[in-house]
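Appendix B, Record 12. Input sequence as logged:
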Amino acid sequence: MLGALGLAWPRLLLYPGGTFALGASWLLAVWLARCAGRPLDLPRRSAAGALLAALPPLTAITLMPLAPARSFPFGLDLVVALALLEWPRVMQGHDLQRQTAVRAYGPLLLAAVLLAEGAGGLELSRLLQAPESWLDRGLLGAGTLLWLVALPRLLRAGPDNLAGRLRALGLLLVAALPLLGALAAALAGVVPGELAGWLLPPLAMVIAALALGGATLMLRLRCGSRRARGE
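Logged structural output:
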């Protein structure tokens, strides 16, 4: 895999990894901090451990099936992607309580099941294909929505550093893939193929980021309401 990435070095250094991942993860952190009503914390100076924790989520982002990135001979499935993206949370070293873990990961795992059922498999590339069956479309749409709704609580428990920001971007990109597939199917024949490869991925990412910001704002208002009631 490392040899193949060396042959597809633009993926690693430019897009969807590299400079794109660094810039997009920072913009996403600014957006989510604003939606959560908190200041954006500046990451501490990167140490070897922090860089090591950032490599797995960066690898997952690099392997995302996003146009117009150069084709890659190896695919990535949802289970491996989630394991790579959650590596910074494991490296954080804080054990989640059982109730907190169920509330944080339960909806995300259910969303993953719905996505896999709707897409007909665990490969991330399958999320880009618009299903012909209305049932599969409904499962894929419900899985995408539930994935986005589950992220604010999950991201709140993660590290706020480079690795954590790359983790957040990678989790967002998973939800952007079905949106990209739906946009491509809806605009087929309207937007030329080469142009769609450049325009639709950023559009899907922006839609996913707006939805995630809305879910983050809703969680903020809910937590504020509970504190006001003294719960």
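Residues 2-229 form one domain.
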